[in-house]
Amino acid sequence: MDAFSLIPSVSDGSQSRLKRPLSRLDELGFLRAREERRKRDGYACQGCGIRLPKRDGRIAGIEVHHRNGNPRDNREENLISLCPLCHALFHIGLFARRFGKSMRLIHCPELDQGDLTLLSWTSAILFKNAERNPSEAGERLAGKAGRLRGMLLARCRFPETYFQAPEDTALLNSLIMEEDSLAFFGSVLGRLKRRHRRVYVHRGEWLGGLRIYFDPKDRELFRDRGGADLLTVCLEEAEWQAGKNWGESWEAIGRQFAGQLV
Q1: What is the DSSP letter of 239?
Q2: pTM for the whole thing?
């Protein structure tokens, strides 16, 4: 998807709400701006395209991200609607500590990050559906999704000289030797952001085909901040697949993995 660039990032600790809690006025301003942004985006993630509609009078799953990292800057152009998975890409350090090996660095240049994340959502929904509504067709689709998952997880190995960043190249290339590579990757990005700002800003160029794969077998990834099971919401709400560019994403996935899932 070209609507929004999903480049792995680390948040700026100096802007953190933990260090600088929002005032009551700032919090109310964000809540108003958040709802306006979600309405404009049709309650669809602008990263992967999944649509998580209202349910029981509340939004299930669609979060709003401050593009410049400043939680007090609620200008319309600074806000964007994202699902929990796409939102996690902008807070790599935090989510790597929380989910560990359920977020994996893989080499997948055939798909952009948004399409790969949509694939994680759809695979997780297929697994959930096969469990809730047993059928021969459902089991067959879930089996194909499982084989595709295995193929993608096998892509966690990189060439030894994969990274060609001007600074800290050796450190980046050592990612392939780390068991907990995503947490280490987050720490490297943080170091680059602090010490080599220019290299960090252009990370989209030297990261190349590196992607983050969200393991569809980990149900905790697919919950909103209130703990609601978003996979259940998707199964019960037929509109989940109606997000922006959803059809185009599946065309790209189908071209690369024909016969594996569909």
Answers
A1: G
A2: 0.85
Bridge partners (DSSP) of residue 64 are 81
Residues in the chain where the model's pLDDT stays below 70 = 1-4, 12-20, 53-60, 158-180, 238-247, 250, 258-262
Residue 29 tokens, joined:
């301003």
Instruction: Say how far apart CA 102 and CA 230 lie, in whole Å.
Output: 17
Alpha-carbon distance 11 to 37, whole Å?
Answer: 21
Q: Which sign does the torsion angle of CA 255, 6, 230, 62 carry?
A: negative
In this prediction, what percent of the chain has a pLDDT beyond 90?
A: 19
Q: First vs last Cα of the chain: how many Å apart? A: 20
Q: Longest Cα pair distance anywhere in the chain, in angstroms?
A: 55
Torsion-angle region of 225 (φ positive above 0: left; ψ -120 to 50: alpha; else: beta): alpha
Q: Please give the Cα distance from 54 to 198 (Å, whole number).
A: 41
CB neighbour burial string for 175-185, b if at least 16 within 10 angstroms, e if fewer: bbeeeebbbbb
- Residue-wise pLDDT tens digits, 101-120: 789 888 888 888 998 999 99
CA–CA separation, 158 and 177 (whole Å): 10
Q: SS in 3 state form for 63-110?
A: EEEECCCCCCCCCHHHEEEECHHHHHCCCHHHHHHHHHHHEEEEECCC
> Is 209 buried (19+), middle (13-18) or exposed (0-12) by CB count in 10 A?
middle
**Token output for 119:** 């694939």
